[in-house]
């Protein structure tokens, strides 16, 4: 569709005119401006909702909201066209079959062996060995080999040695006991005993129920519920109330509404954020993780964690606890292993929760998003403790929804095997690992004290420690973020230092050799100079160019947040960068323009010429200050 | 950029030819200027009753007046006290923390101050117009705006030396009454009439800038915290008294002869290092901050200084320094 306008969400003055394309997998908007032809790509799987707004004199507005929090506003001149686009997008954004998803057509031009290697990168058998099992107390059981006992669990599960095959039906990462009001389950009780015995250092175990007590009690009426302490000897019960998926879905919705407010006051923002309850939920998950980590690390007591079904809050809380306890999971590889283990292999319902396919909207909930945010909050509190950076977390979140890779499809290992995911799609982990230089945290040192131990975040008083994650929820609003990333700068510094040190070594050797033979000293010196020019860090401050936002509410004056000149040049660089990387663009790079640009400007050997200086031409659509 | 106190038009709308001539010399034929009044239009009008007032349009035809009310005086001090109370309250749940923070209004004041300074900067940089800033006396919100605007506009004010010069010029010599304003701080029950944390608000705004532009200020948070401490209680004479007259003539102590200057200490080579920002890289451009609520954060380093453990952040800072210096 031609002559479509893409509005800047905050200033209707900054509309870009271009052409809208719909392909089988993407919506693409290409700007008409001939030199740059800036492109905006959106994967259909990322689309969360489409809103057709009332037709105005300028055309028919269409609002696309994405699961990665990008919001795109288009104005289509003809109502008929707009309607067609709307209907098409609705259908495209709600695939019915797995084969419609992008991962089945995505082609990164790798051969069969590379694809296979990619899937093998994260190996859970290796991980269990690293954890020290099987051992005297824990063994592997194949009772679920055909998914006969539990179809949402993997084929291989680890159980206490003292548990006979017949009680293995209840498992350590459990769902709620089907106790009802008075029924007992002997197998359950025996299983818990077996678990307790697997830890000879303690004479009791904690049973942590992550539901609010009221919900658990209500479940009793339906024949489920929670463990009756009288029936189970040597357990200590603990409710750590985390709300259910419906509450979380609504919470996120409310928070996004706050993000969409136009020119909110500080009050609007803070009240809105509080009303959503989002940070409260994040803190609840974190507190549960902290409790468990303390029990294991400080008290040496085993912990059984469950909620209603065992695939949402249980996963969140166990993963957070694991991160706190084991520094391995704070490395990049370890984190991928953690997600593979606690979420993918144990049947977190990715399809239902994140809507790979069109399904029940009541099953949708930002469960893994919350876990990822907990991790980010931890990286803010412990900046040296994690090997990866914020961008790593954001890209993982984007790809959980993008369905560009096959890792997060379906609801269980069983379903994924049936669909032959590993033979027909590619692994996200391999892709991230290949680009791991972009995802490193320059402040991480494996020998640092912060990285080696259990992390002990404060539980109280610490409300203030939880910040609003504008890097995630305002990801696409460039004006809100610093134009140059400290992370990228420090990574570049680190790299250059390393290169210089290696260079120094080489030169030292050569000097030693020269002192023996007789060579022209000048040659050595000029080489050294050339090298340092090449490695010169660009800390040029042209990259800090930005334009003022609208500072005055009542007087329409200046262009709003997104720097305009900056965008034109930035996107030219992005297209180039994509061409260099691979023939199929990494779509997360397209939508993550900010970081892409910063990488380039920081490492450019040619110096600071990449981005326009702030004074390179006044914006033509700046209104006169006073109308 | 100019600053002054309010024109004394009074209830009879007196004219002052000298004022008009003075402002007239600033503008050429056909040029325009902006007057940023840090009071609301209504408050400015009411000021006439007590001998003050605003510039009548007819007498200053080339100047356009804008009102940007900024909090000062008792309400600002109350806001500060409430915030410190909230930060120290161990009983607040996460449910209520944000609304409690909002009710202190401190962050709203930060947003308003930054917005107004940016407005002044925009007038100069984008409109290429002269700007006159005043409130009532010209010693409180006026200085907040002019000093902040200079940090935004002028790269030399962002160097360690330049920033000190800015403080001397725009706060100390300009007559901000430090002795009255920085008396007892937030814990005191005394509730002195003249006490108000304008200088802290300024430092908070500078901290917001340093967070949004981590490479553009030559100094770090440590300097801002040190200045905050010394404004209230100091081993040095820099922030003593209320104005130059008191420091030289009025005060019994004769500040210059009998005390040492904070700047002389800060600039000693051994000390200086602590205040420098390892990420600093001279930036000749104007830095335009975002004043959206998401971009303005609570200054944890100040308000939770004694509450939260800074160990992990200190380690991160040390690591940053190590990386940069190693290079």
Automatic annotation (TrEMBL), chain A:
Q: How does it sit in the membrane?
A: Peripheral membrane protein
Q: Which family does it belong to?
A: Belongs to the protein-tyrosine phosphatase family. Non-receptor class myotubularin subfamily.
Q: Which UniProt keywords apply?
A: Coiled coil, Cytoplasm, Hydrolase, Lipid metabolism
Extent of Polar residues compositional bias: 535-565
Keyword Cytoplasm among record annotations: yes
UniProt xrefs under InterPro entries: Myotubularin, Myotubularin-like_Pase_dom, PH-GRAM_MTMR6-9, PH-like_dom_sf, Prot-tyrosine_phosphatase-like, Tyr_Pase_AS, Tyr_Pase_cat, Tyr_Pase_dom
Q: Where is it located? A: Cytoplasm; Endomembrane system
Q: Which residues form the Myotubularin phosphatase domain?
A: 118-473
Q: Where is the active site?
A: 307 (phosphocysteine intermediate)
UniProt feature, compositional bias: Basic and acidic residues: 522-533
- Tell me which domain of life the UniProt entry assigns to the organism this sequence originates from: Eukaryota
GO terms for MF: phosphatidylinositol-3,5-bisphosphate phosphatase activity; phosphatidylinositol-3-phosphate phosphatase activity
For region Disordered, the annotated ranges are 518-627
Q: Which organism is it from?
A: Thalassarche chlororhynchos (Atlantic yellow-nosed albatross)
The protein's name: MTMR7 protein
Q: Which residues form a coiled coil?
A: 490-517
Q: Which residues form the Tyrosine specific protein phosphatases domain?
A: 276-320
The record's Gene Ontology cellular component field reads: cytoplasm; endomembrane system
Q: Where does substrate bind?
A: 244-245, 307-313
TrEMBL record, chain B:
Q: Name one GO cellular component term.
A: cytoplasm
User: InterPro entries in the record, alphabetically?
Assistant: Myotubularin, Myotubularin-like_Pase_dom, Prot-tyrosine_phosphatase-like
The Myotubularin phosphatase domain covers which part of the protein? 1-303
According to its UniProt entry, one GO biological process term is: phosphatidylinositol dephosphorylation
Pfam family of this protein, just one?
Myotub-related
Q: Which PROSITE patterns match?
A: PPASE_MYOTUBULARIN
GO molecular function annotations of the record: protein phosphatase binding
Similarity section: Belongs to the protein-tyrosine phosphatase family. Non-receptor class myotubularin subfamily.
What name goes with this protein? MTMR9 protein
* Name of the gene this protein is made from: Mtmr9_1
